[in-house]
Amino acid sequence: MLRKIFTIMVMAAIALSAYAASAVIDARPTQIDISSASSESAVLVTVSDYTSDDARYRLYNGSNQYNCWDAATSTFITSTSYSSGPQVPGTPTTSSTWWIMFQRGNNATTVASYRDRLGPAYTSNYRTIALPAATAITTPVSITNSDVTFSTWNDFSSKYVILAYDATVGGTLISATSSALTTGAFNLVVEAGTTIQRIEVRDVLNNLIESVTGTWPAVGQPVIAVTGTLNDFTAYTGTPSASQSYTLSGSNLTAGIVVTPPAGFAISTDDNTFYTTAQTLASTFNGPVYVRLTGATAGNYSGDITHTSTGATQVDLAVSGTVSDPVPTIHTTGTLDAFATLEGTPSAAQTYTLYGELLTANIIVTPPAGFELSTDGSSYSSSLSLAPSFDGPVYVRLIGTTVGNYGGNITHTSAGATQVDLPVSGEVQTPAGPTIFLEENFNYTAGELLTANGWENHSGTTNYIQVTEPGLIYTGYPPALGLGAALQTSGEDVNRGFTPQNLGNLYASFLVNVTSAKTTGDYFFHFSTSPINTQYFRGKVFIQKDSETNNFRFGLTNGASDIEPTVTTGYDYVYGTTYLVVLKYEIVPGSNNDLVHLWVNPTISDTESTPLLTSTDAITSEPDNIGTIALRQGGSTKAPALQIDGIRVSNDWAILWSGDAPPAPVITVTGEPAPLANYAGCPSEEISEYSLSGSNLQGPIYIVAPTGFEV
Question: Is residue 670 part of a domain?
Answer without folding.
Answer: no
